[in-house]
Amino acid sequence: MSRFPNRRVSIKDVASAAGVSLQTVSRVVNKSANVAEPTRERVLQTIHELGYRRNEIARNLIQGRSHSLGVVCAGLDYFGGRQINGGITAEAEIQGYSLLLKEHQPSDPTPPDTFVQSLLDRQVDGFLWMLSDNTADHDQILDTLVKKYGLPVVAMVNPRNPDVPHAAFDNFSAGLMATRHLIERGRRRIVHIAGLPRSWEAQERVRGWRVAMQEAGLPAGDDRLCYGNWGPEGGVAGLQELLVRHPDLDAVFAGNDNTALGAMLEAHRRGKHIPQDIAFIGVDDTKGAGWFFPPLTTIRQNRVEMGRQAVRMLISMIEARFAGEETVPVTNYVHPPELIVREST
Amino acid sequence: MSRFPNRRVSIKDVASAAGVSLQTVSRVVNKSANVAEPTRERVLQTIHELGYRRNEIARNLIQGRSHSLGVVCAGLDYFGGRQINGGITAEAEIQGYSLLLKEHQPSDPTPPDTFVQSLLDRQVDGFLWMLSDNTADHDQILDTLVKKYGLPVVAMVNPRNPDVPHAAFDNFSAGLMATRHLIERGRRRIVHIAGLPRSWEAQERVRGWRVAMQEAGLPAGDDRLCYGNWGPEGGVAGLQELLVRHPDLDAVFAGNDNTALGAMLEAHRRGKHIPQDIAFIGVDDTKGAGWFFPPLTTIRQNRVEMGRQAVRMLISMIEARFAGEETVPVTNYVHPPELIVREST
DNA sequence: CTGTTAGCGCTTTCAG
DNA sequence: CTGAAAGCGCTAACAG
């Protein structure tokens, strides 16, 4: 077998078969003007016959760009987590960009910089950053990417670095909306089981809860707050702890749907009726939440739309860069929360 | 701004800075033998100072291979679905391969061949095939890939094409195991709410259920079987229908955990006690299943391990190909089911 | 042990 | 409108 088992028909093959120069074929392929119609036809015919397709690698080399995006994400296996979604793949496809995927698992000691470098070696034109901000070196790596290399980056997480545009969820409003809903439903002793304490998203939701409680004149001290891990385990442990402190609590705002799932299980085990004894609300509207027992009221986070927006922002930055424009400030996209009322409240 | 905003330090820069030829730098970078130690040191030093990194695109071009894998998957958003996972990303990373991701959404009319071609244009060395077999042209595309192009492909789905090695779950044994567990628990009137009727995986699980029932001398006719859509909706509808046909059913084998989730919700709504009145078992062990109400007994499918195996198989095929070996038959990997007993049975 | 030459497949520039 | 030449960054083959 040849050393190049994957060799395909090249532009040269087409050129000689059609009796024209490489240049002409290139022009036809790239839909450049200056080609006589008969020539164009003939070349197109040859291309079709030979099944020619442009080698993107070769094109990348000479153009100094790859039409591909580096995606750095965390925890693909993480249930309901921050991950690559249909919005991202679909939008990239529409715009003619490919996706190079790297995953940084939370347990992985490899610094994320390794992934970034490896992506850079493959000449990605920009980065879609989906690592959560509590990863080691997070801020510094983003800084290097943006300041030193001047590369386009769009984050779908903590926009702590003001130089990095982001497409993110309005976590604060989500917390506000969830808590207000519980209050409107007549609940007064509302506790909050938050996500990971070091997470910006968790903190914002906590803040929303606090503000909503305060504006209603309800207590929202640290004794009514508990941190978990975004998983059901955290919900179980959180409700246990909060019931010790406040046996009379009448509603739980869970940091996300998974936390709510665990908390509801714990409530069932204690013979509490949902929502009569305790109401529950989550955040995310993960697939499945509508079939929890009881179906969970939640704040929907449309991650597909967010992904779509992020890709659009990133590509517009890339195109501007290659067009030689100065760095244009890109406006952030903040995704609004949406209340989905079901039977748990 | 230059036409090449992403230009980096090249091998040429290193060569002139270190006062050696391109070749010597290349040899150092590729850890080739024939380099004098002092020279090597000096080059390494220069590389470090200049922050040189090899341009993989250029390397790909001349080597005719890209050290990247094309991943064609279905429904990233699909809850608990067949998707790219930590096993895949981690194993590819370890072996020094990149992942180029394409998603074919079920609703997308674009033929999957488009994705395949686009991946080929980017010179992927092989394919990880995660499209379900009911996609249009599925078999034909795989055939072309393998027979015509002779490209390495590993499937994580329906191994209907014997030329395509696969890393798949033992769906039949899963059905057998689930049903036997229910029988051992003393259940006799066991119904099955399966997945999509056209899916091979669903059919295999159905077959497992049938065999287990028959070997126990229990009835397993079509009247005790119902097809869904792998989602909770299917579980709700399925249980409703089966309860009409068999009001005395005492156990449900759900095609997957999501189906079980929906079916359990419907059971709760009818005031049935789980597992006293009806026992439930699922397949998958999705994150969350352990916190359903009640926690779901299920057959675990370790997709991370399956992903890892698939990547290993694929890379070994690729390496063999580039080493000039004849196509070596790769042994399939069949992942064993694992029973996880919880409170729903 | 080291350097030179050629060329992967393509696009860009410049001549005709 | 078309072609020739140069070269993106790298590695393979061959000299020395």
Q: What is the highest CATH level, the class of the largest domain in chain A?
A: Alpha Beta
Overall mean confidence score, pLDDT of chain A: 91
**Main beta-sheet strand count, sense and barrel state of chain A:** 6 strands, mixed
CATH topology of the largest domain in chain A: Rossmann fold
Q: In total, how many beta strands of chain A?
A: 12
Distance N to C terminus of chain A: 67 Å
Chain pair forming the biggest interface: A-B, 76 and 76 residues
Q: Any idea how many domains of chain A?
A: 3
Q: Extract low-pLDDT stretches of chain A.
A: none
Strand order of the largest sheet of chain A: 7-6-8-9-10-12
Class from helix and strand fractions of chain A:
alpha/beta
* Helix content class of chain A: 40-55%
**CATH H level, superfamily name of the largest domain in chain A:** Response regulator
Order of helices and strands of chain A: HHHHEHEHEHEEHEHEHEHEEHEE
The CATH architecture designation of the largest domain in chain A is 3-Layer(aba) Sandwich
What is the molecular shape of chain A?
elongated
| Oligomer category | homodimer
